[in-house]
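tool_call predict_complex ligand=octanoyl-coenzyme A
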Amino acid sequence: MGNFKNLILNVEDEIATLTISRPAALNALNSETLDELNVALTEIEARDDIKVVILTGGPDKKDNPFKSFVAGADISEMVNFTAAEAREFGMKASVPFFKLMNMRQVTIAAVNGFALGGGCEIAMACDIRIASENASFGQPETGLGIIPGFGGTQRLARLVGMGRAKELIFTCDSIDAAEAYRIGLVNKVVSTDELMPTAVAMAKKIASKGSYAVSIAKAAINNGYDMDIKNAVEMEANLFGITCSTHDKKEGMSAFLERRAADLTDF
Ligand code: CO8
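tool_result ok
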């Protein structure tokens, strides 16, 4: 797999851990990192031996692993952007962000510290978010004279509702992990020590299910979200039909009836 300057990719037991690593800038997302993320996620999606991706942030320059997940888009890169360059930057980010959202592998953000601006936004592009208890979340963009431009105005409202999204974006308030859990921004909060073990345990549990079925379930949830319920349920029936013609369906149901463990292999 590709060699990266700002990413570390580790693959073990069908789980890819992708660590964003820019210690000097609290893992802020610059263009180079967004390009690398796109390459890494494209490579991961093509691999049948990777079922789940865990996205996390590397240690800061003092080697503290729980300082920052991603402290936003890189402000030193954005400071001189023209309107056209800013738009291009937003569209560049949308490519890997949509990959996290729509790729066939499940994506879990293990949020290990600051998840601000683009950091909160990239966590929201993942399927599932697990936070360490010291993590904090916020969209400080309007305080910098800009708006969340990596999907934040859209994904935050979809995750926590319009009222809470507006409050967070208009006030720039940061919230702690407990509050993020209370409003539904994260799925789980655990101690710092338990963050990666919890993410890996969840990833292993997901990887042990029918991976093709999980990927089709992900597509059904994503595709149906913006559809009217009637068309969404019809779309679900179509995808249900597709899963019913697989090896895994025959094997999964036969194994249940024969009271044995299923050997699910489709992906
Ligand atoms: N960009 C660039 N560098 C950063 C960023 C960032 N987002 N965040 C931190 N850094 C750098 C600091 O400049 C500092 O560098 P140096 O040591 O060379 O001075 C280093 O990381 C360590 O940071 P601090 O010394 O500030 O660490 P503290 O512990 O004092 O503070 C904070 C930590 C509170 C996280 C603080 O660093 C901070 O407020 N960072 C900025 C947070 C922020 O505003 N994030 C949102 C950025 S805007 C954004 O994400 C927009 C996304 C959409 C863009 C769409 C464009 C189209």
